[in-house]
Design a protein that fits this description.
Helix 2 packs parallel to helix 11 and helix 11 crosses helix 12. The protein is globular and about 65 Å long. The protein folds into 2 domains: about 190 residues, Response regulator (Rossmann fold, 3-Layer(aba) Sandwich), CATH 3.40.50; about 140 residues, Response regulator (Rossmann fold, 3-Layer(aba) Sandwich). The protein is an alpha/beta fold. About 45% of the residues lie in helices and about 20% in strands. Strand 8, helix 8 and strand 9 form a beta-alpha-beta unit.
């Protein structure tokens, strides 16, 4: 009888542990028996909706890093434990996710968001509570001054927009540009910077049209762009699905002008799935060597787990590196948000999957950009 009770208790314990693991997004994996407690980390990403196309790969990159660290003994004898929340790529849900992670889960560090809107929505509460918020892929210029506790490893659109404007004016010899952008923080940040710098160079904005996130018919914006007779068309969606649809409608309208865009439309899975529709598209993204050892190992593990190639390599590498940066900060300075903050501001030439990471006094990374073109279903570097 005693053996039966013991077996039942063991089964119950396994069941409870399984439930906890599932509730934390599978965070408890490969934990050595020697762990004495854990460090809890919040993760806020776009896990549903169109932007999940990069939020989910980022989540998987984070899980890979967590598993590696825990498998190798954790941090200071403790495991890293993750709580995931869906920020849904918008300020409202980003704020709600941060509220929950800070007030209920009591985390001192949050990785996220995937989108600038999420990050900007979460930033005020993170800053007020002195909780680290560090994003792998939010690029709005507004994040630069969002607070002392707000960081990212993706470069600001304040630089990406300048690169796009310079390439349009000096390389494509464009003098008139039509803009079609989505009404969201990320696209509007790029729109603002591109517009300002294209005009500074001597160019003219022939038309400047926006669309709402729920729109699927862009004929009005396209008609106005066509009537302005531009040399190039600069398009920036929040996520790939709307961007691909916009490109299809532009081509259906008979416009032959060169299309210029940002990184979200030159994701590797976007090209693979829509090669014919986006052939010839030129995009700007942060410079990145996908063949460096840490990146190669990450992407190999991702492919083994998912059966797919890494769709947004820079975002995923950034998410992976953030976990290791936090682990190093805690290992060296302890799990106090101000100490983690001080560590992050001291990061210089950190060798990660992204390459060498240096964080400036605003919490932004110092990185260069490259311009690439979709050609025969492949991404070719132009500059």
């Amino acid at each position: 009888m005693g053996k039966i009770i013991l077996i039942l208790l063991l089964v119950c314990a396994i069941f409870i542990l399984s439930c906890v693991q599932n509730s934390l997004g599978g965070a408890i994996t490969h934990l050595p028996d020697s762990f004495n407690g854990s460090y809890k980390i919040g993760v806020m990403l776009a896990l549903t909706g169109d932007a999940a196309t990069y939020g989910l790969p980022e989540q998987q990159a984070i899980k890979i890093a967590i598993d590696e660290i825990n498998f190798n003994g954790g941090v200071n004898g403790k495991s890293l434990l993750v709580v995931y929340e869906d920020g849904k790529c918008n300020p409202k849900d980003g704020n709600a996710a941060a509220q929950k992670l800070i007030n209920i889960d009591k985390v001192k560090v949050i990785i996220g968001g995937s989108c600038s809107g999420e990050t900007l929505g979460a930033a005020p509460i993170a800053e007020a509570n002195k909780v680290i918020l560090i994003s792998p892929s939010s690029t709005s210029p507004d994040i630069t001054n969002a607070g002392d506790f707000i960081f990212r490893v993706a470069p600001s659109d304040a630089k990406a927009g300048i690169v796009a404007a310079d390439y349009a004016f000096n390389k494509l010899r464009a003098r008139k540009a039509a803009l079609i952008t989505e009404s969201a923080d990320y696209p509007q940040g790029l729109r603002r910077v591109f517009k300002e710098n294209f005009i500074k160079l001597g160019g003219k904005i022939a038309s400047d049209e926006t669309y709402n996130p729920e729109d699927t018919d862009f004929r009005t914006q396209i008609t106005k762009a066509k009537a302005s007779n531009p040399d190039i068309i600069y398009i920036v969606p929040q996520a790939p699905p709307k961007g691909v649809l916009l490109i299809k409608q532009i081509k259906e309208a008979g416009l032959k002008q060169q299309l210029l865009t940002a990184e979200v439309l030159i994701g590797r899975n976007v090209i693979e799935e829509n090669a014919g529709d986006i052939e010839g598209l030129i995009g700007v993204e942060q410079e990145f060597d996908e063949t460096n050892p840490k990146a190669s190992a990450l992407f190999a593990k991702y492919k083994k787990i998912t059966g797919e190639k890494a769709p947004f390599p820079t975002y995923m590498a950034g998410a992976y590196d953030i976990v290791y940066l936090i682990a190093d900060a805690v290992r060296i300075n302890g799990y106090e948000s101000e100490r983690v903050m001080n560590y992050l501001y001291s990061v210089k030439s950190y060798k990660g999957a992204l390459g060498n990471i240096t964080i400036d006094s605003y919490g932004d990374p110092i990185m260069d950009f490259s311009v690439k073109k979709v050609k025969n279903g492949q991404l070719v570097i132009l500059t």
